[in-house]
# Entry
Amino acid sequence: MNSFCKYRLELADGSAWALAATEGVSAWLHELAGIMGLRPGGDNWTHKISFSGAGDFNSLESPEEIRGRQVDDNGWRLFRQGGIYRLWRHETIPEVYMELNEEFVKHAEIRYINMWSALRELYRHALATGGTPIHAALAEIDGRGVLIAGAAETGKSTCYRRLPGYWNALCDDQALIVRDGKGDYMVHPFPTWSDHLWRESKKSWNVEKAVPLSAIFFLEQSSTDEAVPVNEPADAVLMFFGAAKQVWESAWERMGSNEKREQSSALFHNASEMAGVVPAYRLRATLDGKFWKEMERVSVPQSINY
# Structure
């Protein structure tokens, strides 16, 4: 591919992603890479996403089926995805080609929707290998990653911002759960796209950083601070599934019924596996109390005092 820029993203499951762009959309990829803290490079990869604009689409070193914009030919299939003009995906080849509308990526908001949509390829990969994106805040303490999940207006982001300085707050909206080579769950921080869409944020996230997932807390507003184990397995599964489903729902709205059913079934299976391994708690939190002490009590070795 005669690309103007190329970046590399490594996930804790061992996959290495090359993100490459033609000159027409190189500025867009530069900005995406800056937001995600990515490194230049990408010659050695296990998965690849190639971006182009409609104006320089033919400069892609892509299969003839794609350059000819053919559909369902030799395993390549054409999709239209929210935020992406055209997308080609193969049944067995770990490469995806995305055609962006150059005028759209110049728009102050649409370009971030394009970025958000492009990351669904990472979500699909995680789902197929036992993980999932999840709507939750991610923080690290003593090398352990904990998630704080909650429905809208429950105070998830507020709790995240209130964590004391000895906690390493990594992201407050979405995280990506993957399985490493030993089958353990690792979790990556992902961008809070609303910060860029509506707050003109210049913030970046170290997406390649991954921490072991040691616990998940499902937030509830309360008059007392308390972390209560979710002892009923069926409840834990449904809570995991519900938090992850919040990320998938916008994609499912534009998806065929068969694909949606397949992904929903895979997500439920993965949620069931996670719930059997990752401790889950109901985090009852007050507006001004030290709720994090309850999180530490159940997720940090008792020999460590803060």
The mean pLDDT is 90.
